[in-house]
Specification:
single chain; 456 residues; mainly alpha; Hydantoin permease; globular; membrane; transmembrane
Length: 456
């Protein structure tokens, strides 16, 4: 029976807003255009400009191995593939009404879902902190009259306010922010293509799939949070389309713009913002990108709160959001996040094969048969953990990341297996496929064994 406290919370909450706890039903109020605007805004990031260099497949010395033109094509291919994966992660949330980490109860069981939940909380806190630092540094590029800590605190405050009314924030993005961002993108495209660009075909196509994998990895970094928003979608088809198309289109636009800016500064990543700031009205339009970056930190903080609710279902998300907003602000003031980037990438790699397991089981296995149990008593399913582990191992064999001791361990495994990654291998794509195939094979083997026992 619902307690008096829970009834009071439900009465206080606006009908079109996210419930305060997991005990309350999620309202289905987000239409296709609300969701499209949300994902489109997440596809445009300051990191897309500064991080565009990664799709040029830099070598061990940091020199690009791909031509700018090859990098653009690789980025488009990787983004489209990553967008489709994002759509696959979005649809189950709309169909079940459950947030991302709660969905994993149906995949692994209630208790085993705590493992990816804790990993997700760790990476989201890291990315939320990183976003505040990015906002502060970009704001100081515009005007250094305010100390860095002032920008960090301001960004943290805006982030926290947005997380208190998350669905209202999504609607705000659709009505105002998306239009401003699109105007700024068009303006900068016009300004940059008028500049004397170097030969974009100078270079190689040899590391094409390395560049594609870099773009794909950025797209699927949102996979562990997709259902946190699409559980409020009016339809699963709309959720899939909005996430896959809305995000992919704007990420492609933003990365191409970043690559053009990088070409104009001769590949100097420290000066990648210069082409934006040195054109007429550049500071005004660049300020739109800086302010818009708050939706990235908002998404990270809100999804952290919802992930914690998988561990503590009756925790009030408003209290969690405020505590997390304060926490990442303190971390942004105290930490050098560059030392954490490799660890964040390592954590993120666990969610690529996890999506492979989820997609296979939800669309082709138990989810298709209506047997998806996301309750607090869902039984443990160790076979799905095994499939996840197989996919994770495939990822690490191809790309173990930059955390030195971890990478050394996987190099020893490679040597023992006499395995050498090839240039065409995408760690993200192949680990997704391996994990999905392992899920189906284990499921079929279990079903065949069950039928054999029944006959005997």
């Amino acid at each position: 029976m619902t307690s008096d406290v829970e009834k009071t919370l439900a009465d206080e909450r606006p009908r079109n807003e996210v419930p305060y706890t997991l005990d309350e039903p999620a309202p289905k109020v987000l239409g296709f255009w609300d969701q499209s605007a949300f994902w489109a805004n997440l596809g445009v990031s300051l990191l897309a400009f500064s991080g565009a260099y990664t799709v040029l497949a830099p070598d061990a010395d940091g020199k690009p191995t791909l031509a700018i033109a090859a990098g653009i094509v690789a980025m488009i291919v990787g983004t489209v593939l990553g967008g489709l994966m994002l759509g696959l992660a979005a649809a189950p949330g709309a169909r079940t009404g459950q947030p991302a980490m709660v969905l994993l109860r149906g995949l692994f069981g209630a208790r085993l879902s705590y493992v990816p939940t804790v990993l997700n909380i760790a990476q989201l806190i890291g990315w939320g902190t990183f976003e505040l630092i990015v906002i502060a540094d970009a704001a100081r590029e515009l005007w250094d009259g305010v100390p860095r800590w002032g920008y960090v605190v301001a960004a943290g405050a805006i982030t926290t306010v947005l997380t208190i009314w998350p669905l209202g924030s999504v609607r705000l993005l659709r009505r105002y922010v998306t239009v401003a961002v699109m105007v700024a993108l068009v303006y900068f495209y016009v300004q940059l293509v008028r500049q004397p660009l170097p030969d974009l075909n100078h270079g190689s196509w040899g590391g094409f799939w390395v560049g594609a994998d870099a773009a794909l990895a950025v797209s699927i970094s949102w996979v562990p949070v997709a259902a946190d928003y699409t559980r409020h979608a009016k339809s699963a088809r709309g959720a899939f389309g909005a996430a896959s198309v809305g995000y992919s289109v704007t990420q492609i636009i933003a990365y191409v713009l970043g690559l053009l800016a990088l070409a104009l500064v001769g590949g100097d990543t420290d000066r990648v913002f210069d082409p934006f700031l040195h054109v007429a009205l550049g500071a005004v339009f660049f300020a739109i990108f800086v302010l818009r970056e708050a939706d990235q930190s908002f998404a990270n903080v809100y999804s952290t709160a919802v992930s914690i609710q998988n561990l503590v279902p009756r925790a009030d998300r408003r209290v969690l959001s405020v505590a997390l907003g304060v926490g990442i602000t303190v971390l942004a003031l105290a930490l050098d996040i560059n030392d954490y980037a490799g660890f964040l990438s390592l954590i993120g790699s666990v969610f690529v094969p996890l999506l492979g397991v989820l997609a296979a089981d939800f669309f082709l296995g138990r989810g298709r048969a209506g047997g998806w149990d996301a309750s607090r008593t869902a039984p443990s399913r160790w076979s799905k953990i095994a499939a996840w582990a197989v996919g994770f191992a495939a990822y690490q064999l191809i790309n173990p990341g930059t955390v030195r001791r971890w990478a050394d361990v996987w190099q020893h495994v490679r040597d023992a297996l006499h395995f050498t990654p090839q240039g065409w291998m995408s760690a993200s794509l192949l680990s997704f496929l391996v994990a999905g195939a392992a899920t189906l094979l284990i499921g079929w083997a279990g079903a065949a064994r069950g039928r054999g026992i029944t006959r005997r």
